[in-house]
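In response to a reviewer's request, we include the raw inputs and outputs for one of the modeled complexes. The two entities were modeled together in a single run.
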Amino acid sequence: MAKKGFFSTLKRALSEVTYGAALHGQVSAVLKTRMYIEHMFILMILGDMLGFPILPPYYSLRLLPYAVPNVKAWKHRFYRERDFTDVVYG
Amino acid sequence: MAIFAGKGGLGKTTCSAALAYAAAQTGRRVLCFSTDPQASLSDIFERDIFGKGEVEVVENLHVVEIDADAKINAYIKDVKLKIKEMYRMDEIPAEIEAYIDSSVAEPAMYESATYDAMADYVSGGGYNLYVFDMPPFGHGVRMLTMAEVLTSWVEKLTEVRKMAQEYDEVARKLRGEKLGKEDEILKELSDIRNKLTTFTDIMRDRRKSAFFMVMTPEMMSVYDTEKALEAFKAIGVSPAGIILNKIYPAEMADNPSPYIANKYRQQQSVLKVIREKFGDLVVAAIPMFPKEPKGLTGIKEVAKHLVDGVTAAW
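The model returned the following structure tokens for the whole complex.
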């Protein structure tokens, strides 16, 4: 039982090391792009929250509940001041 | 689908009610829907139907006078409830709540809610004919262009959402996780798109829908109709016909009062202009009645002229 536990822990550790070494960077990049897309999506439905009136809010309100958890981060990113490091680090 | 457009006060609602009545008499199941904020179907049918949903006034003829404000309020309540239920919140975050409440005050909300109700009825089926009495502002052109804009907006949103989902899948695969559940937003978007496209497809199909302009023999109405026809042409819609309303009876010419006789002569000269400008487009000519055509008797009378088409009077 203990042996099996040891091997499964080893297997998990190895897979985590492999993931960290080979894939974590890629996953982060994918998730970052995913965040940009999410923010573009929120802009398309809630643009007028920031002063971009895109369309009458009738159908936007139907989609609003799904965007609620991301609104704060989205506004934060939009309102954030930018400098040259943003160009370098994205 | 039959759509009546034109300036306010020319008889759009009366014509809509009359056509709906005539069609219902032939055994078709008809829905007459007034999108006009100053709707007067209640007045015409002499029954309070405002905000009461589909009301059957005579056999096969159902009328709707939408209470857009009530619809918006109910909708807003639903949205708030959904947020609370989805995230098990007692209170909605202040900025979100403020945003929802401020959107109610937008004038475009009224139009959108009305438009959504129209699309709901048409995509829901259940009637052989839908008669829409359009709002007077912008000749209802905005209502039609709204369909195009909304559809392309929904298409774009779907595209962005699908892209986001693809990235989700890639991230999941790289992490060795299982496939995620179907995106709820995509389901909502597809719902909205289906409703809108069913409606716009019918509206764009000349075999399924007809646009009628209602006008009166006055120069102001002539200029206005010309502008409206241009606006419709610009969005690729050609009217099925023009309905001329409130034509004075010939006996007015011999009236001893110079005021009345002159009114008649003036209208005759405008009718000449209408003949030159719109000619064959005029499909029906409705006389000026001695009293307002109200109630079923009044509607029946207007319907007769509408169905008879252009007569000698024209």
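As requested, we also summarize the result in words. Chain A has a mean pLDDT of 83. Chain A touches chain B at residues 15, 19, 23, 26-27, 30-31, 33-34, 37-38, 40-41, 44-46, 48-49, 54-66, 68-69, 71-72, 75 (CB under 8 Å).
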